[in-house]
Design brief:
Blueprint (H helix, E strand, L loop, with lengths): L2 H7 L12 H5 L5 H9 L1 H9 L10 E7 L2 E6 L2 E2 L1 H14 L3 E6 L6 E5 H17 L7 E4 L5 H13 L2 E4 L6 H11 L1 E7 L1 E4 L2 E4 L1 H14 L6 E5 L13 E3 H4 L12 E2 L3 E7 L7 E6 L1 H14 L8 E4 L6 H13 L3 E5 L10 H9 L3 E4 L1 H10 L2 H4 L8 E5 L5 H11 L6 E4 L33 E4 L11 E6 L9 E2 L3 H9 L8 E9 L5 E6 L3 E4 L2 E4 H9 L4 E11 L3 E10 L1 H5 L6 H14 L8 E4 L13 H8 L15 H12 L1
The chain binds 5'-O-[(S)-butoxy(hydroxy)phosphoryl]adenosine.
Length: about 675
């Protein structure tokens, strides 16, 4: 066995297998037959998926790939995304069904919004925006907390054919200004503030700053700022620009006729937190995006709109929120929970209280949240009745087997299957995932491409690797919800995603992956997170997983730090479990040795960390991604770089204080 495949083989220690629950199989939305159909006729399969939506005019061509990598799906078709997410459910007699159980951070602050009410509010918002001169093709920036008006504003834009760009409310005014300038937004929708950990926190001041910055470059760009009153805190007011939502929207008519849009009409631009340079504006269009988000939401979670209560615990400011809080669930007529706050406000059982109160049946969240709950301990969820949960989802990063099994057992009662969904801002919707009525789950593996999706693991030359081997993940055929380009930058679009395997015409995802002996897929993290130690390719994910499998470790992040002898060396940052700390365990030399040896035992000597640093927190973005770049700065004794996208920018100070002693 070569050294490379030896390293890869070590992840396959995992022997646990979970069959789909029998009662779920008996009434599953999707069966093996769906995979077979899609394999026999890929485009025909996506046509059928598109037929689940209501179209003005039917398409005359499913896919136009004449000018790759610029795809057009459902060519000639017309539809309105807002109509599909709202009006048609009311017309079908489901106006009284709750669309959104909104849960504010302050405990008694809740709202239940039915589809009929949603239709009225979206129509009012569309009328108000239209009165401000917003029309088809105009850009609207949305900078909001997690309140219903955020979804309403998005749907109001879609109704008019205006293109929204939601900027996560945790971003700085600079980030907002650069995005407004890049896409040319004429209106900004915001609120006075939002609630964070029990206290109101302002948003409008950041908008005021952004507007001033934008005005320096483009004085006439922003014509209005539409402000929701959420916290009631004092705000500066500019009569020339600012308009209260309750005046403009509240006073508008509830009648609004949505206009049919071309299937390829832009729906939104979502900026990805650029690792280098300028953020990338990912462009999604209407027909293909809505088809894939609606269909995957229905299939991956086995959604039964009449009975399920669905909850994506993420922020609308990220693609997960766009696709699986707003567009997918609403297109399917789902009853969803939307939660404004953090998991520990006002106490660490808040999520489980919400699950119990609303009878949540499907929960979708990030592994980082799961590992946090593991750290807090199983006693906290045990205080609540979570028996309503029947399907669980995971997204955003590889889920390590320990977290997967804990999620399944402790949250899912040992029966709810875990859907580990691999996808990206760029892919718009799920691409690689188990399906709850079909797949035998393997902790840590995202398993197989979704029906109608063609993915491969290839070597540097673009040749598919065999089972048991690793390489780069590519998507080999266009898919409906694929990004169409980077806003205003076709060249960068081609360069970033299509130049790596230009000969084959593959989409380069930027992720490492391996196929196990059964041909199932394991995502190994971004290729930029893959280390090279003494010429061996090693996955940060794999070592993190080994560390987290140690009973004293709650969470771990691994980076490859420059090393004179070995090229890169493994540096690990770990958070200990509260039980370990309560037992008086400190970051002793003995414990550090124990953890290093544990990794050696789990993976091999090559993976043994050079350094293990015990830290109180890890630096995470608001979407929960660990910013390894910053840890790398610490590991390499450098000045720590830009911390503006961290959820809590003081975390790095804590880590630096602790790290000097741990090596
Ligand atoms: C990157 C995309 C998908 C929406 C949220 C993140 C990583 C995502 C998984 C998963 C392993 C995953 C990949 C991908 N990723 N899901 N299930 N297993 N890795 O969207 O910010 O565009 O990030 O997240 O590295 O490339 P994003």
């Amino acid at each position: 066995m070569s050294e490379k495949s030896e390293t890869l083989a070590s992840l396959s220690h995992e022997e646990r297998r979970y069959a789909p629950p029998e009662d779920l199989v008996a009434q599953a939305n999707v069966t093996q037959a769906t995979y077979d159909e899609a394999a026999a006729d890929r485009l025909g399969f996506w046509e059928k998926a598109a037929e689940r939506l209501e179209w003005g005019q039917r398409w005359d061509r499913v896919l136009d790939w004449d000018d790759p990598p610029f795809a057009k799906w459902f060519v000639g078709g017309t539809l309105n995304a807002s109509y599909n997410c709202v009006d048609r459910h009311v017309e079908a007699g489901h106006g009284d069904r709750v669309a959104i159980h909104w849960v504010g951070e302050p405990e008694d602050d809740t709202r239940d919004i039915t589809y009929a009410q949603l239709k009225d509010e979206v129509s009012q918002a569309a009328n108000a925006l239209s009165d401000m001169g917003v029309g088809k093709g105009d850009l609207v920036a949305i900078y909001m907390p997690m309140i219903p008006e955020t979804a309403i504003a998005m749907l109001a834009c879609a109704r008019l054919g205006a293109i929204h760009t939601v900027v996560f409310g945790g971003f700085s005014s600079d980030a907002l200004a650069s995005r407004v300038l890049d896409c040319g937004a004429k209106v900004i929708v915001t609120s006075d503030g939002g609630y964070r950990r029990g206290a109101p926190s302002g948003l409008k001041p950041a908008v005021d700053e952004a507007v001033a910055k934008v005005a320096q470059e483009k004085p006439d760009l922003v014509t209005n700022v539409l402000v929701v009153r959420r916290t009631g805190q004092d705000v500066e007011w500019n009569d020339d620009l600012d308009v209260w939502w309750h005046d403009a929207v509240g006073g508008a008519s509830t009648e609004h006729t949505p206009e049919q849009m071309d299937a390829e009409h832009p729906l939104f631009v979502m900026y990805t937190s650029g690792t280098t340079g300028k953020p990338k504006g990912i462009l999604h269009t209407t027909g293909g995006y809505l088809t894939q988000t609606a269909y995957t939401h229905w299939a991956t979670f086995d959604l039964k709109p009449e009975t399920d209560v669905y909850w994506t615990a993420a922020d609308i400011g990220w693609i997960t929120g766009h696709s699986y809080i707003v567009y997918g669930p609403l297109a399917n007529g789902t009853t969803s929970v939307m939660y404004e706050g953090t998991p520990d406000t006002p106490h660490k059982g808040r999520w489980w209280e919400i699950v119990e109160k609303y009878g949540v049946t499907i929960l979708y969240c990030a592994p980082t949240a799961i590992r946090t709950f593991m750290k807090w301990g199983a006693e906290i969820p045990a205080e609540h009745d979570l028996s309503s949960l029947r399907v669980l989802g995971s997204v955003g990063e590889p889920i390590n087997p320990e977290a997967y099994v804990w999620y399944r057992d402790t949250i899912g009662g040992g029966t709810a299957p875990v859907m580990d969904t691999w996808w990206q801002t760029e892919t718009g919707g799920h691409m690689i995932t188990p399906l709850p009525g079909v797949t035998h789950g393997k902790p840590g593996s995202a398993m197989t491409p979704f029906p109608g999706i063609s993915a491969e693991v290839v070597d540097d030359e673009g040749t598919p690797v065999g089972n048991g081997e690793g390489g780069l993940l590519v998507i080999t055929e266009p898919w409906p919800a694929m990004l169409r380009t980077l806003w205003g930058d076709d060249e960068r679009f081609k360069e970033t995603y299509w130049s790596r395997f230009a000969d084959q015409g593959y989409y380069f995802a930027g992720d490492g992956a391996k196929k196990d002996e059964d041909g199932d897929l394991w995502l190994l993290g971004r290729v930029d997170d893959v280390m090279n130690v003494s010429g061996h390719r090693m996955s940060t994910t794999e070592i993190e997983s080994a560390l987290v499998s140690h009973p004293k470790v709650a969470e771990a992040a691994v980076v490859g730090a420059a090393d004179e002898t070995t090229g890169q060396a493994v540096c690990a940052f770990v958070i200990l479990r509260e039980s370990a700390l309560a037992g008086g365990e400190e970051a002793s030399d003995d414990l550090i040795q124990e953890l290093r040896m544990h990794v050696q035992k789990e993976i091999g000597a090559i993976a043994k960390p050079r350094q293990v640093m015990v830290v109180p927190e890890l630096p995470k973005t608001r979407s929960g991604k660990i910013m390894r770049r910053l840890l790398k700065d610490v590991a390499e004794n450098r000045e720590v770089g830009d911390v503006t996208t961290l959820a809590d920018s003081t975390v790095m100070d804590l880590i630096k204080e602790g790290s000097s002693s741990g090596s």
